[in-house]
Amino acid sequence: MMKFEVKAALDAKFERVVGDDEEWTEIFSYLYKKFDLMPEEAFSQCSNFTNIRSAIHEYKIKSSRKNSSKKTYCKLEAPIDEVTEKAYGIITGSNNLSGTNYKEYVSWIPTSQVIEEDSKVYVPNWLISNNNMWGFVNKNDKITR
Fold this sequence. Notes:
By secondary structure, the protein is α+β, with helices and mostly antiparallel strands. Strands 5-6-1-7 form a four-stranded antiparallel beta sheet. A three-stranded antiparallel beta sheet has the order 2-3-4, with no helix packed on it. It is elongated, with a radius of gyration of 26 Å. The two termini are 48 Å apart. The relative contact order is 0.14.
C-alpha cells in the first residue's frame, strides 16, 4: 500500500470505530502522530487495518538527539567512606536495625570514571542515573568534558 492509501484506510476505520469513545480517540491520535513521521516504504507490506496498525506500532522513531562526545559530571556531596585502588565507596542506606543485625549499604564508584579537581570529586551523570544516586550529588556544581 502507498502512504495515501494507508491514510484513507485509517480515516475510514476512524469514522467507523471512534464515535464518542475516548479510548479509541487516543489510540487513533497516537497512530496519526506516528503515521506522519513514517516513510513511504514502511507501508509496503500492509494490506489491511491490522497490518497497518502493527506496522505503525512496530516502527521505531529515530532519536533526533545528536550524539555528543561531551559528558556532564556533578560534584559528589556525600562523604567518601571507603577508598580502594579501584573505587570510592559511599554509604547510600542501611537496614535500620540495631546491634549485630545493623547493615550499611555501600555504592561503589569506579575511580576510572570520576574526575578529581581542587579536592572535589565529580561523578558522570550516566553513573548517577544508573545507580539512582541523585541525592548524593550537587546538580548545580557540574563540569562538562
